[in-house]
Amino acid sequence: MKRLVSLAATMLLAGLAVTCGGVGVGVGPSEGPKVIVLGFDGLDPALTRQLIDEGRLPNFARLETMGGFTELETTIPPHSPVAWSSFITGMDPGGHGIFDFLHRDPETMIPYPSTAAASSGGLYLDVGPWQFPLTGGDYERFRHGTPFWDVLEEHGVRTTVIRMPANFPVSGTASRELSGMGTSDVLGTDGTFTFYTSELFADRDISGGDIVELDIYDNVVEAELLGPPNPLLREPEQLTVPFTLYLDPETESAKIELGDQEIVLEVGEWSDWLEVDFEMMPTQHLRGICRMYLRAIEPEFELYVSPIDHDPISPAAPISTPPDFAAELAEAVDRFYTEGMPEDTKTLTEGVFTPDEFLAQAKIAGDEVAEQYGYVLDRFLEQRGGFLFYYFGNVDQIGHVRWRSRDPEHPAYDPESDAAHADLIPTLYEGLDAIVGQTLDRLEAEAGLGDGGADEPLLIAMSDHGFASWRRAFHLNAWLFERGYLTARSPDPYADEGFLLNIDWDNTRAYGIGFSGLYVNLRGRERDGTVTAAERLDLVRELKRELLAVVDPETGQRAITEVHLREDYAFQEGAAIGPDLIVGYGQGYRGATESASGEVVGEVFSDNDSPWSGDHMMDHRLVPGVLLLSRPLGRPARSIVDLPGSILAEYGVGEFPSLAGGAATGSP
Amino acid sequence: MSLLNAALRAVFDVALRPFAALPPIVPVTVVALVSGIFALLVYRWTSNQPAIAAVKRRLFGHLLEVRLFNDDLRAVLAAQLRLLRENLTYLRLNLVPLLWMIVPFMLLIAQLQFHYGYDGLEVGERTLLIVDLAAADPAVAGGEEAAPRPPIELEAPPGVAVETADVWVPSLRQVVWRLRADEPGRHELVVRADGAAFTKSLFVADPDAGALWVRRSPTRRRAAILDQLLYPAEPSLPRGGPIERIDVQYATASISFFGLFDVHWLIAFFILSLAFAFALRNRFGVTL
């Protein structure tokens, strides 16, 4: 009987000890002071200054008093993935090799996302209709250089890097990491929503989404969520998950069944996260999550389904370090958008949502990030020392599509709807101010901020670039076409499908792709190059001279105020993929979206009548970032490129990136 | 059956109450220990122990045969056949105690499922209340095609908010509401249909009290025998009434298996009760 009692008692005690007390997660030692960097994408110094002076940002004002507020020089070009890559590596684009949102493969002349792409498995075992990958498919990150947190970890500093842009797939070297801008949805895109409607002939090609027409029978809608092609089939078919809506027009609500989940939505309501299970084969599943928004039942049925993101509980993509960290976050707070830019701006630019509907969606995304910050900060403050980076993208994404509410001179300014949102962006800044306040209070109370001790913590609030109004669009390829540098296969704008497909390469000397990139059609590099290496530099100088002389006939303003040559970068190790010239637009101007995606014919100048009314992809001197400090840096930073070196100096680590093993080494 | 279920509910509520605030692996271990002993006693009383001992000896002998005469194919094949036959005999001898045990274990598992099979709602969490109406009498209702909205009402107690209007799904004969749990406690929802009132329990966990493992009933159904056996957590709905079933959604729970992994309580229960039974078989003089 003793054995029986002993056995039962042992199991009970083990159960109590482990399940009551929980498994202690060792936070371990970390060297040096606590440093927190709050990355506020697109925080503009002029507006920040104005709101501080108006007393609307009391915590930013606290920071300014403690350690100062300066402009932070951004990169050339001042695009988010470019600037954040410089922050990560301490190198300019010539070093880290990220020059734009889009690059092109000179061998195929096909554009591709600049920061990362999915690659399929190389070897397959074919069995009937199935193919089994023998080598795993993977994601490839294109950024060169060594992240500064690699060096910190090597020096014993525990690092937490949350939503760092251009860090997908995650580096795998931080102690805790969650990928940010550049992270795809399950389709492998930047985020593709689906809009289901009963309206006849509503289907049209839109950017960033699909419109699906549906029939309704007896107030029942049968539909499918759309996934990627099944990679386990030799002849891939699109993965789908069926769902059913039962509409009740009388109460303007619907019951929705998706798998074993049942929800009720009234018109105008958002669902919580719903699990989506794509069955690739009976034992293999791709798990995603989505939110639904019931927009209308009558006169037409309209349902928005968000891009299907990787489920953080069991992601199929490398979105966190350690791999279960994303699940830890989801279990601690809730599931969350895992795609890089969760604010679904395309719904607004494509006319699917009203501004208020878009803002409701963006608020959901922003609230998730802010709520998760509380958990991450708690965990960070439990440990001794360490480095924390946390990214907030809400201001940038909303700023892009609502900036004109601050600019009555904007050609698309609508006195009625825009005036109502005139205070929207300042209100978002106040939200960031609250984050700063929360952090300062916690650091003062729990980490000795302001004590003046040897390891006094440091809070840095910074942005990668500022913001400006985008009123006029400059169509770079149309200009090249007009000036004879580029020949189109068809001069008909309606025949131009973009993606450089309308270019007659044999008679083209230069072309544009991306928002700032201008490339020479170089023989030996481009597939159908026409310009010899000896002619290249003369052509580049000629283009620079002519671009700087371009004047908008409607305003009389110079449209381009800065043209940077690839050779001008201090680092050259990653420069080979970059443009030959980087075009910096003047105040109020930006490269046209059509030209950025490779369309070549049309007007050279046009009014920007899109909701996308604010931008920063222009002359980098017009859109500097922000640097606010809780105490002066030991090694001052003038530019975003300097900042990682300054952070390392806080831990007594010397020059960066040279100490990190040099440029263009380490990461793929 | 209703009386039996009511008695069992009372017994299990009282018996498991002391464990309510403890990790569920603790009561599951205790119940598994008691169940393992119970199963050994039933096995000893209802099985033919000498025959089981004999068949096990023969099985061992045939295994030895295979090992010793492995160079003689005919002998090995003959031994394999005998092994198969003795195995079937062993299974037949186990059938009788299995039949004795199946009913009490089903009743036990059904009761435990409603204590450990579902997570309680948390304050602020949402759930659906789904009322399935009985099939309409076409002569009275004017045919399926008309499917008029039924006169059905929901009364929620303080602490439970009804967030939506009643969603009428004629094709499923369902009325659905979305509820939000605002206050902890065991709440009684009242559904009024055809002049009668039908209650449905809703349990909301108290965040200050930690996890509380008490009876949660996701479904209340009509008094069919199988439903009464499988869903004993609430009294059955009256036969012939206007409502077939009333459901609320609780998430399926998993429990920590001594901190090693999370598992459904039933798997933990089977692992532990089998382990206890094997560990204690000699002490109880049972040949398994």
Could you please describe the fold and organization of this structure?
The complex is a heterodimer of chains A (668) and B (288). Chain A is α+β, with helices and mostly antiparallel strands and 668 residues long. Chain A folds into three domains: 30-91 and 144-183 and 340-469 and 613-668, Alkaline Phosphatase, subunit A (3-Layer(aba) Sandwich), CATH 3.40.720.10; 190-317, no CATH class; 472-607, Gyrase A, domain 2, CATH 3.30.1360. Chain A is built from 16 helices and 34 strands. Chain A has an eight-stranded mixed beta sheet with strand order 2-34-24-1-23-9-10-22, sandwiched between helices. In chain A, a hairpin with a 5-residue loop joins strand 19 (292-296) and strand 20. In chain A, helix 3 crosses helix 12, helix 9 (355-382) packs antiparallel against helix 10 and helix 10 (394-402) runs antiparallel to helix 12. Chain A starts with a helix and ends in an 18-residue tail after the last helix. Mean pLDDT of chain A is 92; it is low at 1-5, 7-27 and 659-668. Chain B has 288 residues and is of the alpha+beta class. Chain B folds into two domains: 21-118 and 260-280, no CATH class; 126-250, no CATH class. In chain B, 44% of the residues lie in helices and 20% in strands. Chain B has seven helices and eleven strands. Chain B has helices at 2-16, 25-46, 49-68, 73-116, 138-141, 225-230, 265-280; strands at residues 126-133, 152-155, 160-162, 167-169, 174-181, 185-193, 196-204, 219-221, 243-248, 255-256, 262-263. In chain B, strands 1, 3, 4, 5, 8 and 9 form a six-stranded antiparallel beta sheet that branches. In chain B, a hairpin with a 2-residue loop joins strand 6 (185-193) and strand 7. In chain B, helix 2 (25-46) crosses helix 4 (73-116) and helix 3 packs across helix 4 (73-116). Residues 140-144 of chain B have low confidence and may be disordered. The interface between A and B is medium-sized, with 30 and 34 residues.
